[in-house]
User: What shape does this take?
Amino acid sequence: MINRKLNRRSFLTGSSKIALAGAALPMFVPSSVLGAEAPSDKLNVACIGMGQRTSVLVRNLEARKQNIVAVCDVDANRTGRKKAKAYKDYRKLLENAKTFDAVAVGTPDHWHSRICTAAMQAGKHVFCEKPLTHTVAEARALGELAGKCKVVTQTGNQGSASTNFRRSIELIQAGVCGRIKEIHIWHPPHGWPSGVNRPAGQDKIPAGLDWDFWIGPAPMRPYKTGIYHPRKWRGWYDFGGGSIADFCCHSFSMPVKALGLEYPERIEVSGKGLGKESFAESCTVKFHFPAKGTRGPVTINFYTGGDMPPAEAMAGIKETFNRVDRTGALVIGEKGTIRAGLWNSECYLKMKEDKKFRGGFNHDAAKGIPQTIPRAHGHMEEWIDACKGKGKTFSPFEFGAHVTEIGCIGVVALRMQKNIEWDGKAMKVKGAPDAEALINPKPRKGWA
Assistant: This one.
C-alpha cells in the first residue's frame, strides 16, 4: 500500500492502480487575465444549456462565491438571468472567451462533445454533466483531446467526490473482498419515453425556442409538445442513451477505476421494447471484461426498467436494511461484497461469512486498511480548486470519457438487438460493419 503521508500530487502521479484517473495539468489563471471586476480568488464561469442540471450547477457555483458571467441556451426562455450576458449560440459565446475562465455544460447529451471540444480548444476549463458524450467515437476523441489540452476538466459524476467512493476503491485494491468477479447495478423504470417510436404529427414550436439548433447534429424531426424538450430527450436514441448513458458514469466509475477495467470484449443484451427509437422498456446488459495481470475476468451486469439481479447476489441486503432499494450497486468478490449504491457514494461491506453488511470503515476486515486516496470537500470544489492550480480532479475527461465509452458500447448492442463481440482498440463490433453508423454516426447536413 502507498504511505498515507504522501501528498495528493505524489499519490496521483505515482499510483499505477488508478492511472486512468490522470488529469490534464491545471493551468493557473492569474488575476490579470480574469474578468475586469473579478477578484483573483474567483472564477468567471459561462454556463451552457440552462436546464435542470445546469441550474443545480449554477447554485453550486454561486454558493461557492464564483462568478456566473454568461449563460447560453437555444431556448430564450431559459436565459433570463440578471447580471449575466445571454447567448443563444455557444460559438458566439466562445468568440468572447477572454471574458471568462471556465465553462459548465449541461445540455442534452448529443451536444456535449462539440461544446466541450470547442471550449477546451479555446483554452477554457470545463465541467460537463454526465454522460460525457453521446457516442463511442465522441468519447474516444474527447478523452484523447483532454489529455493534450492544458485545462482542468471534471465529469459530473458527483458521487466520485464522496469519501465512501474512495474508501471502496481502497478496500478493493487492498484485496479485502478478494478477487472481484462481478458487479451488479440496478435502476427502476424511468420517466422518459421507452420502448416506443416517435409520435405522429407536429406541434407549434414555442416562442423563443430555436428547434433547428436544439436538434443540431442529430436527424431532424418535428417538434412535439412534452415529448423531447424539456427533460424527455434522454429516452430518445438520437439525443441520449437512456438509463445506461444516464448512470454509467455514476455506477461504473468506482469499479472501473478500482480494477483498471479497459474495454469489454463481449456485451450480452436482453429485454423488452428493443428495436425502437427510444431506450428499452426494460433490459439487462452484461459487459464482460477479460482478465488482465493478476486480475481475473470481471462482468458488469446492468439492469433497468424492472429487471433485477439474481437473489444470490442480493444476499444480506434485506436482512441489513429491511428492504431492497429501487436502485443499487454491488461489487462481489471471492471473500466479500461491497454495497456501493447507484452513485457509488455508499460503502457497506459484507464478508462471505457475514449475514449482514457493516460500514466500510467499521468492519473488522477493513479497519487495518489505510487511507491512500486524497479526500475531497466536494465535486465542484475539487474542480474550482484545480482550476486555480490547487490539486487535480478525480474524474477528468480522460477518465470520464473512458467510462462513458463503456456505457455507449452497451447502447450499441441494445440498438443492434443482439450480443456483440467488441474490439476495443479498433472501436469496432467484430463481424458487423453496419455497426459503424451507431459507433460514429454522421451529423446532419450543415452541422459537420
Summary: The CA atoms of residues 112 and 366 lie 39 Å apart. Residues 8-160+379-401 form a domain with the Rossmann fold fold (CATH 3.40.50.720).
